[in-house]
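The authors assume throughout that readers already know how a fold can be written as discrete tokens. The format is easy to grasp once an entry is in front of the reader. For illustration, here is how one protein appears when written out as sequence plus structure tokens:
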Amino acid sequence: MNLPINIDDLFTARTVEWERLEFKEGWNPEDVLRTLCAFANDFHNFGGGYIVLGVGEKNGRPVLPPVGLSVKDITRMKFGSRLK
């Protein structure tokens, strides 16, 4: 499935406001869930947001190059807590 926005635009925030954009270096389900809830509580009517996994952030800006996600993280996303 293609993103409705160019990934380079996400990294430079040319077309997305920063209130709608979160960078997460790794997979932390609780942290991602908090961000999803914040985007769902769309007080400013932005229409949601983007969470970019595998990219760190410093002072709200992406740290490039992306670190990516490990196979273990991707497996944990798919199967959740069933895997230890």
The two ends are 29 Å apart (CA to CA). The longest strand covers residues 21-24.
